Predict the 3D structure of the following.
Amino acid sequence: MNTAVQTSSARQVADVIIIGAGPAGIAALLPLLDAGRRVIWVDQSTRAGGQIWRAGLPKNWQRQLDDALRHPLLQTRFGCTVIAAEPRGQGPGALHSLRLQTHAGTGSQALRVAAPQLLLALGGRERHLPFPGWTLPGVMGAGGLQALVKQGWPIAGQRVVLAGSGPLLLAAADTVRQAGAQVLLIAEQASRGQLLRFAAGLNAGKAKQAVSLAWRLRGIPYRAGTWVQAATGQDRLQSVQLNQGQSRKELACDALGIGFGLLPNTELAQLLGCQLRPDGAIAVDEGMGSSIPGIYAAGECTGIGGVDKSLVEGALAAQSLLAQTTPTATAPARQRALRFARHLAEHFALRPELLRLADAQTLVCRCEDIRLGDLKAYSDWRDAKLQTRCGMGACQGRICGPITETLLGWPAQQARGLRAPLQPGRLGAFAED
Ligand SMILES: Cc1cc2nc3c(=O)[nH]c(=O)nc-3n(C[C@H](O)[C@H](O)[C@H](O)COP(=O)(O)OP(=O)(O)OC[C@H]3O[C@@H](n4cnc5c(N)ncnc54)[C@H](O)[C@@H]3O)c2cc1C
């Protein structure tokens, strides 16, 4: 028995709880503190920054964040994961309530926090699509690879291929090259025509960013209409087989970062009863209010759109949390961010060939070792889960759920039903009330 587990029946209460310390959470925090709100700020990471600012914030944001972190009205709960939640009941004084599990030092501790208002700034995660060899050591999500390198994973001298779709491949290539890796190839599944149309539709600011990134990546081969057919190796990755339309090519490498875009993180919103849109993101109104009174959402969890969208939505959510009214029209800055999000989605749409890469032997559920062939005997997610344990491992279906939705047409995440704990938790987190 782990004696380091401690529970406390004390519940910490604030005016607002922000879950997520990425750009959306940061943009919301500052005006809330300025307006005198008591804020509890939760993130499973041990510091603020989210996915994009993992290695440090831009200077202007860092200065403001440093001030905020010293603010007497702020309590940070970093290194804490929200694993369970109950929406507030009726009546004045009712509070939304969250259970956190902290992972500090050698033990873990359970905490309860509550507030009349919540802001879900939960971010997104990588979409995975299986292909033969995708579970070999050395094959990683492009964002995951980038995150490891930002946190100091030694990659100098390794031969890296980045493949999949979208701008995250370029950002990851930039990070791993700066860390001393040799980037052999960026394989983009979108066609050359799609890429040209994407570039032509960028506004001046985004075009400038793209040119600056292209300059930093000069010398790295970038191939459109190219994707990884399979990864091969004995005990770890040794090479990738590339499909370039009419031709096939094998390329020896040490690491493969694969990125098929992002998916919004919505599990906590679902547990609280918030409605999702048909595309799986949290449904919000013009003021970032969800379908549950007092619960707001901002950033990638309301639809994938990049850092500018997250910053704009975080600031808008703060305005609504303070005013407690809903604007009647979409703010112009959010309109621009949503336009860019649509532009991204349209030009980096995944080609149908990518959905046919996995064969019967390809693993779909990496936690429980379930292959595509094992799943084809079942008609839906629940049946497969009960019979095979697909989705019942450590990731709780975050990876294989969207895969079965895409490859087998099983009902989307929102139809599967969700129960606490959202992530594996210690019994101590539920032992007291
Ligand atoms: C792996 C990865 C790498 C990326 N790299 C880049 C990049 O280099 N450049 C770029 O432009 N964009 C990148 N992106 C896109 C990125 O999502 C956005 O640009 C930006 O970070 C979004 O900000 P956000 O605040 O909406 O979400 P995020 O930055 O993702 O922040 C969300 C935060 O919520 C926390 N959280 C979520 N659920 C819980 C919970 N239950 N309990 C506690 N905390 C929780 C997470 O720990 C996270 O810190 C990346 C995305 C991913 C998934």
